[in-house]
Amino acid sequence: MTDDDRTALALLGLAARAGGIAPGTERVRDAVRGGRARVAFLATDASPNSRDKIVPLLVKHAVPTIERFDRSGLGAAIGKAPVSAVAVLEKGIAGRLRTLFGDAVPGDSPRRRHGLNG
């Protein structure tokens, strides 16, 4: 695990303690639809069903998406059971996460990874 990975997980934990996250696929979907999701984490081992529910929505709303950690890692970072997705709602923390992972291009990463067009 890199220093950036440790920093990102610590920032997720900080956001969780401050109430600035939406954990789990359904809550992430609600946050994206409501325009509150600033950055989304999608677990590297998320099920195809979870991906099918969330990736098109993330792409449609151009939410920067980071696929970096597994479900257990995301859950542990936010003090919960394993989760497939976490949305960061807090602007400052989301900005720091986007700086850490410059490859989190709005809508582009999940689109490219999952073969979605237009």
How many β strands by DSSP? 4
Low-confidence stretches: 105-118
Strand order of the largest sheet: 1-4-2-3
Structural class: alpha+beta
CATH topology: 60s Ribosomal Protein L30, Chain: A
Mean pLDDT: 87
Helix content: 40-55%
Description:
This protein has 118 residues and is α+β, with helices and mostly antiparallel strands. The chain has a single domain, classed as Ribosomal protein L30/S12 (60s Ribosomal Protein L30, Chain: A, 2-Layer Sandwich), CATH 3.30.1330. The protein has six helices and four strands. The protein has helices spanning 3-17, 25-33, 48-60, 71-78, 91-100, 108-113, and strands at residues 21-23, 39-42, 65-66, 85-88. Strands 1-4-2-3 form a four-stranded mixed beta sheet, with helices on both faces. Strand 2 (39-42), helix 3 (48-60) and strand 3 form a beta-alpha-beta unit. The longest helix is centred in the first third of the chain and has 15 residues, at 3-17.
